[in-house]
Amino acid sequence: MLRVIFVTVLSLSFLIITGCAHRNKPIVDTRGVDMSAYRQDWFECNQYAQQVTNKAGAGAVGGAVVGAAVGGIVGNSETAKKGAAVGALSGAIRGQARTGSEKSAVLKNCLAQRGYRVLN
Fold it and tell me: So which domain of life are we looking at (predicted)?
């Protein structure tokens, strides 16, 4: 049972992380835009976005605590350990997704503040 849950959570994490990678690329109206200047601005804004702290670790800790608590309530210490493991993995996935969303927002806001018309 735990293996099925682990494989399911791992598969979902792959989908979430690959989805976040695509979300990071803003669509900008390039009509009348100097593309050389845009590439430089995108690079600089992306550097700001990379400063966003990764929230996967905090999510893993929170998920492990909740998973262990639920496992301890509904079962024994072995169930609590399994619950902690599944909770940590799912918490890390959620934290990583939040990090990707925040990085995307920083990149888009930076470009918009530099005068680009961000469409997404």
Answer: Bacteria
Domain spans of the chain? 2-113
Would you call 28 helix, strand, or coil by DSSP? strand
Long-range CB pairs of 54-57 (<8 Å, 24+ gap) are 54/95, 54/96, 54/99, 55/95, 55/96, 55/98, 55/99, 55/102, 56/92, 56/93, 56/95, 56/96, 56/99, 57/92, 57/95
pLDDT at 85: 74
pLDDT in tens, 95-117: 777 888 899 999 999 999 999 99
Residue 96, exposed/middle/buried by CB under 10 A (0-12, 13-18, 19+)?
buried
